[in-house]
């Protein structure tokens, strides 16, 4: 680049001119027409141009690194709240397989169930009647008012039993309708008898235990009750034997 010779280039045609006159165009190589660059420098002009382009390109590249392009996306500022939270995988839930529903048939009452209910009812009835004879004797023999209270309790118990017998279910037992009807007749007659005994005992005590205890009306109802109880026992004892229950007599009701 810096090699310099003693020759000059003609300012008109560029031909090397070793003297003051151009051998090609005969131009005088005076100070006005001499080139400013000596021969040997001109061939370095292309290299200078390349270097200048490279310098300009490097400058542009450096400037582009300093200034972000307009279309470049702005850097995203990640706040602590937006930072990724570690996800802990929960264990898979145990899904139980559906348990098959077993359809259980609801068993209804059986003939024995109905017979057993009648048996329990008869036991209560027997317990209520057991004290009746002793209470009548206490009023008649000792003029004891305590006997009157017992007869009153027995009468009320018979009234309750007469209502309860209507609730007994006997549709599954043999001759259930007749069984229930004879038992109802027996209890109704017994209730009427107890009511007459109560009336007689109250009257006797009111007369200061004179004039005798008038038991005839009560005895008439009691005989009717005994007949109804006999018919009931004829139906009940075979049924009780079939279901392993207690057989009874008319006096047990």
Describe this protein's structure:
The longest helix has 31 residues, at 176-206. This protein has 253 residues and is mainly alpha-helical. A hairpin with a 6-residue loop joins strand 1 (8-9) and strand 2. The chain has two domains: 8-62, no CATH class; 111-252. A two-stranded antiparallel ribbon has the order 1-2. The model is unreliable at 1-5, 36-46, 71-76, 78-85 and 97-105 (pLDDT under 50). The relative contact order is 0.08. It has helices at 45-66, 111-129, 132-142, 145-164, 176-206, 216-242, and strands at 8-9, 16-17. It starts with 7 loop residues before the first strand and ends in an 11-residue tail after the last helix. The protein has six helices and two strands. It is rod-shaped, with a radius of gyration of 69 Å. Helices cover 51% and strands 2% of the residues. Helix 3 (132-142) packs antiparallel against helix 4.
